[in-house]
Structures are given as structure tokens and as C-alpha cells.
């Protein structure tokens, strides 16, 4: 079971669009996939047609230990399910404050999926912050995928993000690795996009070998700006349901294929336990 957090503390860079459409592409090619919506805005849930109103079980109830991930999970398409989220989740930061081992609530809630190898992929759509929800995601996954919109300030935020993954790797989850950076809303042919990509390549190439991003790649497939990708959520469909032949669908199919081709980062068996006492 591959577990991937789609993470960037900046809003509007393509986290939700990437989570939903990568998951949909993987499901379409026969993988069993579950999305965990970790954003109180519930955009990933809405994108796939789930209105998560009062009375609907959500990831909040999983964090509150009122239900299991399996009970909160809803099937939205063949092979594709979602553990939805809504604004209730915004309270979790406060509710978990002071609780011991609060970083591991999600990891522990998903342990039975690992034990049963329930899915081929679990994809977590993170909120635009580095708070307790994102840290829970980073403790519950082995891989991080970073969507990045190439603009002048993109790399500034990225170093903070990388530092966070390094901190989590040192203190909470030794298995965590950054798999790659996906360039989203890419304007091919612009000088800026090319410059940012080159700077990023340089940064990755000159990084220490023991950082969690040492093997990170810049995905070859760029997600171009495509209006269909922005329209699809209002129809409650992935890009493959909404406009299966548009450039956005082709780009996300390509990105998912690249991701699937990467083998899961494997560590020696004796490092295979997370360091739950270090919290
Ligand atoms: N490649 C793209 N082309 C056009 N619009 C996009 C593209 N990717 C995302 N969008 C739109 O940009 C906005 C922000 O994207 P979103 O995935 O919600 O970002 P995040 O989850 O990081 O906040 C949304 O309205 C989304 O529909
Ligand atoms: Mg989002």
C-alpha cells in the first residue's frame, strides 16, 4: 500500500486538483485508491461530488475516535473512495492540543489498512498549513508529493516545507521521503517557469544525501494551465469524468503514470517502525 501526502503550505497551488485527479487516474487504471480529505474546506470531497453535511461521517469523526476510516469512507467511482471532510475538522487543532502522541492519531487509525493491504494507494489532500493535520499526514505516509506553481516566490516557501519534512523524518517518521515535485498551472514557454524549474533542479541536486528529499524528482509531466481542470469540481467529477480528452486529463494521466512507475521507497526491515516515543 503506497501512502502519499500531497502537501504545500501555500493555498491555490494545485494540491486538491492533483490529489483528486492523480487518484482518479490511478483508479481508472485498475488500482484501488482512497483519498483522505484533510482540509476543513472539504474541497476534495466536493470535487468528487460528496457534500459532507452534518450527520455524515467524516475524517473529523476518525480523529475524534468516534468512527473508523472504513466506516467514514464513501465509494465515489469504481476503485475510488474518499474519506470526506468538512468544516468540523477546523476544530481538531484545538481539540488535539496537549494530547500526548497527537501526531500519530491518523497513522494509528489507518494501521488496519496497512495490515490488510487494503488499497494500492492512499492519497492525502493536505490543508494549506503546516499545523497538526499536515503533521498527522506526514506521520501516516511514506511519501510526499509537492505540487508547485512556478512563480517568483515558489522556492521560498519550499525551503520551509522541506525543513518540516526533515523535522518529521528526524523526530516522528523515519520512513518519510519526498517522492517528487509536480509543476502545476505550468505556463510553458515562459521564462519564469523555466527559471524556477532550473533553480529547483539546482536545489535538489546540491542537497545532502541524508535529507528526505535526496531522491526527489521533478516529475517530467508538467500540469499545464487548463480551464477544464478548474471547471470539473463544480460538476462533482474528476477531470476524467468531466472532460476525458482535454490537456488537463492527459497531463494528470501522465503524472499518475510516472508516479506509479516509481517503486515505493523501501527501507531495511529494522528501520520499518516509526519512532512513536520521540514525539
Ligand atoms: N492546471 C490548472 N489549470 C487551471 N486551473 C487550475 C489548475 N490547477 C488548479 N486549478 C484551479 O486553481 C485553484 C486552486 O487549485 P487547488 O487544487 O484547489 O489548490 P490547493 O488545493 O493547493 O489550494 C482551483 O480553483 C483549481 O480549480
Ligand atoms: Mg486544496
Task: Describe the 3D structure.
- The protein is of the alpha/beta class.
- It has a single domain, classed as Rossmann fold.
- The chain is 39% helix and 14% strand.
- The chain contains 13 helices and 8 strands.
- It has helices at residues 15-28, 43-47, 59-63, 69-72, 92-96, 105-109, 111-116, 132-140, 154-171, 191-205, 227-231, 239-242, 247-261; strands at residues 2-6, 33-37, 74-77, 80-83, 121-125, 143-148, 177-183, 217-218.
- An 8-stranded mixed β-sheet has the order 3-4-2-5-1-6-7-8, sandwiched between helices.
- Helix 1 crosses helix 13.
- Residues 266-279 have low confidence and may be disordered.
- It binds adenosine-5'-diphosphate and magnesium ion.
- The site of magnesium ion has 5 residues, from helix 1.
Structural class, from helix and strand content?
A: alpha/beta
Number of domains: 1
> What is the CA–CA distance across the termini?
25 Å
Share in helix: 25-40%
Bound molecules: adenosine-5'-diphosphate, magnesium ion
The largest pleated sheet is described as: 8 strands, mixed
CATH architecture level-2 label: 3-Layer(aba) Sandwich
Computed over alpha carbons, the radius of gyration is: 18 Å
CATH domain topology: Rossmann fold
Number of helices: 13
Low-confidence stretches: 266-279
Topology, pairings included?
Blueprint: E1 2-6, H1 15-28, E2 33-37, H2 43-47, H3 59-63, H4 69-72, E3 74-77, E4 80-83, H5 92-96, H6 105-109, H7 111-116, E5 121-125, H8 132-140, E6 143-148, H9 154-171, E7 177-183, H10 191-205, E8 217-218, H11 227-231, H12 239-242, H13 247-261
Helix pairs in contact: 1-13
The structure holds adenosine-5'-diphosphate (ADP) and magnesium ion.
Amino acid at each position: 500500500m503506497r501512502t502519499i501526502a500531497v502537501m504545500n503550505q501555500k493555498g491555490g497551488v494545485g494540491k486538491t486538483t492533483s490529489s483528486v485527479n492523480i487518484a482518479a487516474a490511478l483508479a481508472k487504471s485498475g488500482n484501488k485508491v482512497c483519498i483522505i480529505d484533510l482540509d476543513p474546506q472539504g474541497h476534495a470531497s466536493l470535487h468528487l461530488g460528496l457534500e459532507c453535511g452534518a450527520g455524515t461521517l467524516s475524517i473529523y469523526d476518525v480523529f475524534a475516535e468516534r468512527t473508523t476510516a472504513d466506516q467514514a469512507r464513501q465509494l465515489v467511482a469504481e476503485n475510488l473512495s474518499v474519506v470526506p471532510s468538512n468544516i468540523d475538522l477546523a476544530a481538531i487543532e484545538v481539540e488535539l492540543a496537549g494530547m500526548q502522541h497527537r501526531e500519530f492519531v491518523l497513522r494509528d487509525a489507518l494501521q488496519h489498512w496497512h495490515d490488510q493491504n487494503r488499497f494500492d494507494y492512499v492519497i492525502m489532500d493536505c490543508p494549506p498549513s503546516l499545523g497538526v493535520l499536515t503533521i498527522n499526514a506526514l506521520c501516516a505516509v511514506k511519501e510526499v508529493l509537492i505540487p508547485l506553481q512556478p512563480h517568483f516566490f515558489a522556492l521560498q516557501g519550499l525551503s520551509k516545507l522541506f525543513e518540516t519534512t526533515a523535522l518529521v523524518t528526524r523526530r516522528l517518521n523515519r520512513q518519510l521521503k519526498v517522492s517528487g515535485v509536480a509543476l502545476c498551472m505550468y505556463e510553458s514557454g515562459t521564462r519564469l517557469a523555466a527559471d524556477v524549474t532550473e533553480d529547483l533542479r539546482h536545489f535538489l541536486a546540491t542537497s545532502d544525501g541524508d535529507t528526505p528529499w535526496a531522491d526527489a524528482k521533478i516529475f517530467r509531466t508538467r500540469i499545464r494551465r487548463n480551464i477544464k481542470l478548474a471547471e470539473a469540481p463544480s460538476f462533482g467529477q474528476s477531470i476524467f469524468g468531466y472532460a476525458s480528452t482535454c490537456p488537463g486529463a492527459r497531463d494528470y494521466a501522465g503524472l499518475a503514470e510516472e508516479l506509479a512507475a516509481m517503486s515505493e521507497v523501501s527501507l531495511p526491515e529494522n528501520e520499518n517502525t516509526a519512532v512513536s516515543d520521540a514525539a
